[in-house]
Amino acid sequence: MKVCRRSTFNAAHRLYRPDWSDEKNTEVFGKCSNPNFHGHNYVLETWVEGDVDPETGYVIDLKILKDLVKVHVSDKFDHANLNLDCKEFEGIIPTAENILMVIYNLLRENLDKRFQLKVKLWETENNVFEYEG
Amino acid sequence: MKVCRRSTFNAAHRLYRPDWSDEKNTEVFGKCSNPNFHGHNYVLETWVEGDVDPETGYVIDLKILKDLVKVHVSDKFDHANLNLDCKEFEGIIPTAENILMVIYNLLRENLDKRFQLKVKLWETENNVFEYEG
Amino acid sequence: MKVCRRSTFNAAHRLYRPDWSDEKNTEVFGKCSNPNFHGHNYVLETWVEGDVDPETGYVIDLKILKDLVKVHVSDKFDHANLNLDCKEFEGIIPTAENILMVIYNLLRENLDKRFQLKVKLWETENNVFEYEG
Amino acid sequence: MKVCRRSTFNAAHRLYRPDWSDEKNTEVFGKCSNPNFHGHNYVLETWVEGDVDPETGYVIDLKILKDLVKVHVSDKFDHANLNLDCKEFEGIIPTAENILMVIYNLLRENLDKRFQLKVKLWETENNVFEYEG
Amino acid sequence: MKVCRRSTFNAAHRLYRPDWSDEKNTEVFGKCSNPNFHGHNYVLETWVEGDVDPETGYVIDLKILKDLVKVHVSDKFDHANLNLDCKEFEGIIPTAENILMVIYNLLRENLDKRFQLKVKLWETENNVFEYEG
Amino acid sequence: MKVCRRSTFNAAHRLYRPDWSDEKNTEVFGKCSNPNFHGHNYVLETWVEGDVDPETGYVIDLKILKDLVKVHVSDKFDHANLNLDCKEFEGIIPTAENILMVIYNLLRENLDKRFQLKVKLWETENNVFEYEG
To answer: Could you tell me which of B92, C60, D100, E22 has the fewest CB atoms within 10 Å of its CB?
Structure first.
């Protein structure tokens, strides 16, 4: 049985490699490389797979999962600049793929080993990403 | 090839174990344990996997799948109180996980063995569940 | 300028007049009259119209509007049985129309007179209601 | 890591086998067999699975994926009659299943072998299809 | 109080004036003029404004409104070719604007005079139309 | 008859008055005042009201409206930092209300006088704004 909690966070970011020239950054990342940043309403689905507890009928209490995502993801990234404010992205280009791997690792460390984890991220309504480790 | 029919049903329920005290029920299930019930617009996706029939270009006629879900799920649970009205939940706490397993079993019994079945349930726009037996 | 805060609450209800026979209730309200209740995920949009404050660029701080809706609507009706738990519906059939008028009045009393108010309610994805006093 | 580009195309179609009588076509395909066609807003999700390039943080630049879908799918099928205008459906009944297999093959031929491909199609908001070869 | 019933119908159409040359039709209507038609999943919202009946708590029983839309709109236009199958569009180019005026008139004739009527139509997720006579 | 074109743009912004202390900015604007910015996927609906041209069946060709919004709104604000990159917001705090007034004025200047204009903006899925001059 898989259970999912949907959440959101709004952040600014910029795609940019400091070891590349501005020209190279613009060539590869286009307008996503704007030095003054742009931003998104990120939508995150956190999927946890495990057995249904016969006593409670829950895989995991979704209030616990909601709080886990809040503490380890939303509180860190909501209304933040991923490049400048978040140590989790030091040395990491905050593409959606990298954001999702960072989120996966933050949640994986804090989720009981008996659960499998999958995360899904909408950067825009047309660009979606999925990762399960 | 996987094909899916989306459907909805609106129901009341309460999370509650009669072998627990009211205090224990409230501690575990919170406001979901309200003795007077609360309710949801449940959204169900029924996914059937199988080969495409070369003659019709269908895995299964979706009108047949629609009727199957109507007869075995919606007609039973729509505008019902899952705890009080539905024999399928006798002795079962109607958490979304348990609701989904009940639905899976009802559909599995009535779907040709050559098809694989997966069901997905939204209890709210933020809480989602998936089960494939 | 109109500004809106979207929110949700999940509740059980039953359409029923005690001064009518069960037959009459069923004839008029159909399965919505089920004695054991059913329920919905209600989605509410609260629209406030007013001038943009030149100092803040806000009509009203949406955090204030969010809290207003939480205190006067969601905290009262979420995970409740509208017929049994809510004194606001004593003597009132909780049709979506009546729910929306009750919500309008609760918010209108607590919103500054300089603002106009409009509320919109989804009872299901296909049934929507709008009221502005 | 899986990445997805969502796109749409609007097309007319008819479900019909020329080797069947009109009666048989109507019996099997119902109103979908209307000789004068009907149509849909198709929504397509194109999912590509691969490794994240450590240099760019991308699995594949989504602008490239967007263009791939535009050239090989949308430009061919948008505002078209799938039965009459599209050689891809010669001898093929344009059921959603067959449309999705045609789309899969068009994209598979034009996508680097190192990527896995999955496509998902909404024919209506209630009928969805998924295929991965 | 305004109440709304949402519904859908899937149809083929073509924008074309027989008194114009093909060149003129293509110049004005672009790919919407494809002689072989294309199609859409139309989404219709039917809004009825009136007083809340103090006895039932309804403006109008939404089951009645649902049936009204089914009989006068969906049954006529669903899975149809608006240009070829529907006498309502004889001599009328089925632009979304004209479709909406036709729908408005069909519903207006069959709705009690004490109600005001407004209709809203999505031709695609990005193109929307609203009409109230 | 009202017609609408839906569009999106992704931008960074910060709510901040330079004539206020950092403390005052934080007190009033909270985390929206983050000096390093945050961002949103803005969704814009542009509604134009006018008569239906009896010759074309259009109020306005939606391709024209689409281009108008692209040139005067999306091309300016998409992937931009509203505070730093956009001269339209010099001296203006980019609250959603102010963004919407700026957009209204940009479109109003470039839209034929015979049309009425209304704009609607989603900053998040829960915060919505509407303005008609």
So the answer is: E22
Q: Which of B95, B126, B128 sits opposite A58 (nearest CB)?
A: B95
The Cα–Cα gap between C121 and C130 comes to: 6
Q: For residue range F74-106, list pLDDT tens digits in order.
A: 999 999 999 999 999 999 999 999 999 999 999
- Comparing alpha-carbon positions, the chain E residue that sits nearest to F43 is E126
Q: Is B58 on the interface with D (CB under 8 A)?
A: yes
pLDDT band at D5 (very low <50, low <70, confident <90, very high): very high
Residue B110 DSSP class: T
Distances (CA, A) of E11 to A7, D39, E121: 36, 5, 13
B80 touches C: beta carbon within 8 Å: yes
Instruction: Report CB contact under 8 Å: F34, A85.
Output: yes
The dihedral region occupied by C31, where left means phi > 0, alpha psi between -120 and 50, and beta the remainder, is: alpha
* CATH at residue C113: 3.30.479.10
ipTM for this prediction: 0.96
For residue D101, the surrounding DSSP H or E stretch is: helix D96-110
- Residue F39 exposed, middle or buried by CB count within 10 Å (0-12, 13-18, 19+): buried
User: Looking at chain F, which runs of residues are DSSP E strands?
Assistant: 2-13, 38-49, 80-81, 116-122, 127-131
Q: How many domains does chain E have?
A: 1
Is the CB of residue C90 less than 8 Å away from at least one CB of chain E?
no
pLDDT reported for residue D132:
98
- Could you read off the pLDDT of D48-106 as tens digits, one per residue? 999 999 999 999 999 999 999 999 999 999 999 999 999 999 999 999 999 999 999 99
Task: Check if F103 contacts C (Cβ < 8 Å).
Answer: no
What six digits make up the tokens of A95?
């593409």
Q: What are phi and psi of E33, to 5 degrees?
A: -95, 5
| Residues of B designated catalytic | 32, 79, 123
Do residue B127 and residue A45 have CB atoms under 8 angstroms apart?
no
pLDDT (0 to 100) of residue D42? 98
- B63 interface with C at CB cutoff 8 Å: no
Q: Which residues of C touch B40 (CB under 8 A)?
A: 10, 39-41
Name the band, by pLDDT with cuts 50, 70 and 90, for residue E55.
Answer: very high
Strand-strand pairing, A38-49 and A127-131: unpaired
Nearest CA distance, E77 vs chain F (angstrom): 19
Q: Residue D122: give the domain boundaries.
A: 2-131
Q: Which residue numbers of D are catalytic?
A: 32, 79, 123
| A near C: at least 3 beta-carbon pairs less than 8 Å apart | no
pLDDT of res. E5: 98
